[in-house]
Amino acid sequence: xxxxxxxxxxxxxxxxxxxxxxxxxxxxxxxxxxxxxxxxxxxxxxxxxxxxxxxxxxxxxxxxxxxxxxxxxxxxxxxxxxxxxxxxxxxxxxxxxxxxxxxxxxxxxxxxxxxxxxxxxxxxxxxxxxxxxxxxxxxxxxxxxxxxxxxxxxxxxxxxxxxxxxxxxxxxxxxxxxxxxxxxxxxxxxxxxxxxxxxxxxxxxxxxxxxxxxxxxxxxxxxxxxxxxxxxxxxxxxxxxxxxxxxxxxxxxxxxxxxxxxxxxxxxxxxxxxxxxxxxxxxxxxxxxxxxxxxxxxxxxxxxxxxxxxxxxxxxxxxxx
Length: 321
Hints:
The structure is a single chain. With about 325 residues, this protein is an alpha/beta fold. The protein has one domain (about 5-305): Thiamin diphosphate (ThDP)-binding fold, Pyr/PP domains (Rossmann fold), CATH 3.40.50.970. Helices cover about 45% and strands about 10% of the residues. It contains twelve helices and five strands. Strand 2 (about 140-145), helix 6 and strand 3 form a beta-alpha-beta unit. Helix 1 runs antiparallel to helix 11 (about 265-275). The N and C termini lie far apart (about 45 Å).
């Protein structure tokens, strides 16, 4: 299915926003003003955006510790995210969650998650709700290659198939989990594992937005039609370490520079769209300027915002029905 020009512009804007957001955070974290840990999504933008462009406000996603890109792709407020990461009282979670626990249920973002493999069980619950209430919604669990080895992920695959849930499992395989090559740590591959549960699965090049978007569209359509879960094995690359401060001694010294040169998903997107004559270079340049201003304003606003008060420690602890 060919995407409209509006879809293409939205996709580029979201991918560019993620890239600039993450690269700015890389610089800001080095100042020591951001509390907690930060795990950056730069280089993986085509996966989150390619999947989420097929979703709507009735759909839910669950993320990983590397969740900023998923948040932006699902439509979370960028300034609210920046405030949250800086630990400010007006952040999306009141400054209490920080980078690894951003959530926005109004946008269908169930949260980033510091627990490896923590998202798949949550998303099965969201999918069961959608199926029971007949909302037509689908639920997407993003998980890394390391998280794909967790028992929670295996149990969720089984549950999703047994209950025929409208779930898409997206394994974002950057090849290293934290710092160990998946060729050493992952037996077989995600597609063959899914076959063991009789779940349709495809492997896709995560540097190619259009390839990801197409296989995700097919999986979402299957889920909405009541045909059950699917799995996407997305092979991609991150530009930064597992966490900010990771020296990446497990990677070749020139590996990232070659990835940026040859497999940058933003460059590949622009090249393909320009060659097809679908958008003009000036349209990309306008988005680039808009995004730069958006991120500058978000950082300035976050730095000036108040931190939570002592009284805020006792809020949001217990749920009330």
